[in-house]
Amino acid sequence: MTPILLLGAGRMGGALIEGWRKTGAFALSDLIVRDPAATAEAFPGAVVNPSLEALSAAKVVLLAVKPQIWREAVKDVVPHLASDAIIVSIAAGVRAADISEAFGGRRVARVMPTTAVAIGQGAASLYADTAEALEAAKALLAPVAATVELADEQLMHAATAVSGSAPAYLYAFIEALEAAGAAQGLSPEDSARLARATIAGASALLAAGGEEPAELRKQVTSPGGTTAAALSVLMGEGGFGDLLPRALAAAVKRSEELGG
Q: Which pairing describes strands 122-128 and 108-113: parallel, antiparallel, or unpaired?
């Protein structure tokens, strides 16, 4: 598996590096980092921006650049890679066949992780059409994420919408909840403290208890009570049941567009 070449060490690439370090899955000394913004000080022990010839040592290549620039980012790298290097891509929407073609026919896996891989609590969807590529993807992601293996590459669009993009949905909800609490008279500080602690606690309870979200919702919803009054708005016409399908459809459409 090592050394692992990271093409890009930005938000997601950096989150994976941090998660590997914290969980002990891979050490910085296992990594080759190629990113114009990366420095040896930021990744002590890793090989940072070496000569192109040095990239031939990589067993696995993690493609962690923005999907809009991936072709340009890999152009000068490909001729210097080992012929049996496996490519693992986190570029949203970019098809495995296109990546394999750009990398000279090398084996490819696609993954869609969440940024919580940085603390070893991410989620990741995996797809590959060879067992070797799938095993490489699992080796990278399983130590830092709950993983789901997809049988059809087309499902990566839906997985991106329901998982890869979803942390932002939750953060947007918390932003709105804090603002609404302040509008009801709470200080912004108190509203933020209550909203964030409540959401974090509810998420931890869901993770720890093994109960279905619907059951947990029922447990805190007394008939005719305050929670029921709020849910009649959130789950009524124009609420979550209408908004989330539209939101996911928009994310799927954009993922398909990014794939060309």
A: antiparallel
